[in-house]
């Protein structure tokens, strides 16, 4: 799968964020793709994670996100039997990076995702 196919797959994800949030997601992902060189697969996964969280917030402004909202979201994800710790951590990697960029560009004062503790990964036995 080439870059264009991965991007078009990302466009077709079943979760659609409201228009304002979608614009912010697109800007952030363009930054990751063009400035940071993230892979198309990472871009696709981050897009899906950010859209899912935006849809959950039902059009609330990104920049008003509070840590308790992210903890509530984490709790909901942990209740989904199809999601393992790795999948949850990928979703939060996207959110942490998104909000870290917002802090760096002065859209937010603090990263609300920074204080959220994530589930630990299971240790493999030798």
UniProtKB/TrEMBL annotation:
- Keyword DNA-binding included in the entry's annotation: yes
Recorded hits in InterPro entries, A to Z, give: CB (IPR044068), DNA_brk_join_enz (IPR011010), Integrase_recombinase_N (IPR010998), Integrase_SAM-like_N (IPR004107)
Could you name the domain of life of the organism this protein comes from? Bacteria
Segments spanning the bilayer are: none
Protein name as it appears in the record: Partial Tyrosine recombinase XerC
Q: Kindly name one Pfam family recorded for this protein.
A: Phage_int_SAM_1
Annotated Core-binding (CB) domain ranges read 19-103
Q: Which GO terms describe its molecular function?
A: DNA binding
Keywords for this protein: DNA integration, DNA-binding
Asked if the keyword NADP belongs to this entry, the reply reads no
* Record GO biological process: DNA integration
- Region entry Disordered: which residue ranges? 1-22
SUPFAM superfamilies recorded = DNA breaking-rejoining enzymes (SSF56349)
């Amino acid at each position: 799968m080439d870059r264009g196919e991965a991007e078009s797959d990302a466009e077709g994800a079943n979760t659609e964020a409201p228009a304002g949030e979608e614009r912010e997601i697109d800007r952030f992902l363009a930054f990751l793709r063009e400035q940071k060189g993230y892979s198309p697969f990472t871009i696709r996964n981050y897009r899906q994670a950010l859209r899912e969280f935006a849809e959950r917030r039902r059009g609330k402004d990104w920049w008003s996100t509070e840590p308790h909202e992210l903890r509530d979201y984490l709790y909901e994800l942990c209740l989904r039997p199809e999601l393992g710790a790795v999948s949850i951590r990928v979703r939060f990697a996207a959110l942490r990076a998104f909000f870290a960029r917002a802090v760096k560009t002065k859209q937010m004062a603090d990263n609300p995702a920074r204080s959220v503790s994530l589930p630990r990964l299971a240790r493999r036995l030798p």
